[in-house]
């Protein structure tokens, strides 16, 4: 299986009822080079969604925001003091996570 160069990951920060929702959308194109594949596009997409959500949850538990959701959140504040007073670290730790994947096998 070859993964195309067109693989993309888009992250967004949404707010629902005033609480942050961290989203990650993966778009991937795979090409079979030889052999058979026992999984369908939907099977692979579901696994990627589970893995992405688990990764983000693990990062949240560690207090690590290497994916930059805090940077997205900071854009909504006028200055550093208001950002620092926002309580983002606590909001990030408890944020809901949504991951989606779009996989096409050719």
Brief summary:
The protein has 106 residues and is α+β, with helices and mostly antiparallel strands. It has 4 helices and 4 strands.
Notes on the structure:
The chain is α+β, with helices and mostly antiparallel strands and 106 residues long. 37% of the residues lie in helices and 32% in strands. The chain has four helices and four strands, in the order E-E-E-H-H-H-H-E. Strands 1, 2, 3 and 4 form a four-stranded mixed beta sheet that branches. Strand 2 and strand 3 form a beta hairpin. The model has no long low-confidence stretch (mean pLDDT 89).
List keywords for this structure.
single chain, 106 residues, alpha+beta, four-stranded mixed β-sheet, elongated
């Amino acid at each position: 299986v070859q993964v195309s160069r067109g693989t993309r990951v888009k992250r967004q920060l949404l707010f629902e009822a005033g609480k942050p929702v961290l989203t990650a959308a993966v778009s991937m194109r795979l090409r079979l080079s030889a052999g058979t594949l026992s999984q369908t596009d939907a099977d692979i997409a579901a696994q990627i969604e589970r893995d992405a959500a688990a990764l983000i949850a693990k990062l949240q538990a560690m207090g690590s925001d290497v994916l930059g959701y805090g940077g997205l959140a900071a854009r909504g504040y006028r200055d550093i003091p208001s950002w620092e007073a926002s309580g983002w670290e606590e909001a990030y730790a408890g944020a809901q996570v949504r991951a989606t994947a779009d996989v096409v096998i050719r």
